[in-house]
Design brief:
alpha/beta; Rossmann fold; seven-stranded mixed beta sheet; five-stranded parallel beta sheet; 14 helices; 41% helix; disordered N terminus
């Protein structure tokens, strides 16, 4: 590895090799810190996380041999993220991996030197994580997902399936800045479609039951879910509660449709995490986060759960089925 870095340095006319490149010596075990609000993922049970590990393996990283992961998770509420980020900094990990906006903000507060890689942050310029997508500056890079047109599109899809819907509940985490981006754009769509929104908050798994009780009390006719790591970890429970309340539910990540939600539309998160692994690889080989442009999704996927539609007595329009990337029977 030293010889390769030296030759690369000659090509670039550099007289010195970066500290990260020098560190890539025989026997080096990279330590990646994972900062999250969802439970620690179990290999084989979380397809999104598995896509990250599988891509790392393809790039030559074997867990327990030349890299390890230090997991720090709140298991729900985001209020402990700053303390957990500080723990990872004290451990002097080589890189901090964050799934989305909340964890990214906590990691940014904790360190200006350890590289931070985002898997799916929302509008990182607007939330103050980076100065620009093309030249992030600082120690943060990774991938971003749009909070704008996709949020509007999900409500439009719901209206196509349930044309007479007039009251729609929105499940969100009020501590997540990204969810207010989603909320703002969903409000715009609701005004255009003449739909009344009911915002329902859930900060932790133990607040989800109460959220659905509030939805039922307001007699909402459908549900939009703003997902995040905590909500994603509760996807089966949310789908079950939606089914019990006979609520057509629209979400943004394919895994929610696989768990029973009616429709999901958004980035291919498995692809995002594969690309995240590639950015991690670049940084461990010496690239600076400040010089790595933040990437946007290249794949969007529309998934329809026909089994759920039949249970709700709904007919999915042929126009949606023809556009769907996957139809779950």
């Amino acid at each position: 590895m030293n010889r390769r870095a030296f030759l690369c340095g000659l090509t670039l006319g550099a007289l010195a090799v970066s500290p990260l490149a020098e560190a890539q010596q025989a026997g080096k075990v990279w330590r990646i810190g994972s900062l999250n609000t969802s439970p620690i993922p179990v290999p084989g049970q979380n397809p999104i996380w598995d896509s990250f590990l599988n891509r790392l393996r393809e790039l030559g990283y074997i867990d327990g041999q030349n890299f390890s992961i230090e997991f720090r998770t709140t298991g729900g509420p985001a209020d402990r993220l700053p303390d957990l980020a500080a723990e990872l900094v004290r451990l002097n990990v080589d890189l901090i991996l964050v799934p989305a906006t909340q964890a990214a903000l906590a990691a940014k507060q904790a360190t200006t030197t350890i590289p931070i890689v985002m898997a799916a942050a929302v509008n990182p310029v607007e939330t103050g994580l980076v100065t620009s997508l093309a030249r992030p500056g600082g120690n943060i890079t990774g991938l971003t997902v749009s909070g704008g047109t996709l949020s509007r599109k999900r409500l439009e899809l719901l209206r196509e399936v349930v044309p007479k819907v007039s009251r729609v509940a929105v499940l969100m985490d009020p501590t997540n800045p990204a969810h207010f981006v989603f909320w703002r754009e969903t409000e715009i769509a609701a005004q255009l479609l003449r739909v009344r929104l009911q915002r329902v908050d859930a900060r932790a798994p133990d607040e989800i039951e109460a959220a659905f009780a509030s939805i039922a009390k307001a007699r909402a006719q459908a549900l939009v879910v703003f997902t995040e790591p905590m909500i994603y970890s509760q996807r089966s429970r949310i789908a079950d509660l939606a089914a019990r309340n006979r609520l057509p539910t629209v979400n943004m990540i394919k895994g929610h449709a696989e768990a029973g939600d009616l429709i999901t539309y958004g980035p291919d998160y498995r692809d995002l995490y594969r690309r995240t692994a590639e950015i991690v690889d670049k940084i461990l080989k010496g690239a600076k986060p400040a010089d790595i442009p933040i990437e946007e999704p290249t794949k969007l996927e529309l998934v329809v759960n026909l089994k759920t539609a039949r249970a709700l007595g709904l007919t999915i329009p042929q126009s949606i089925l023809l556009r769907a990337d996957q139809v779950i029977e």
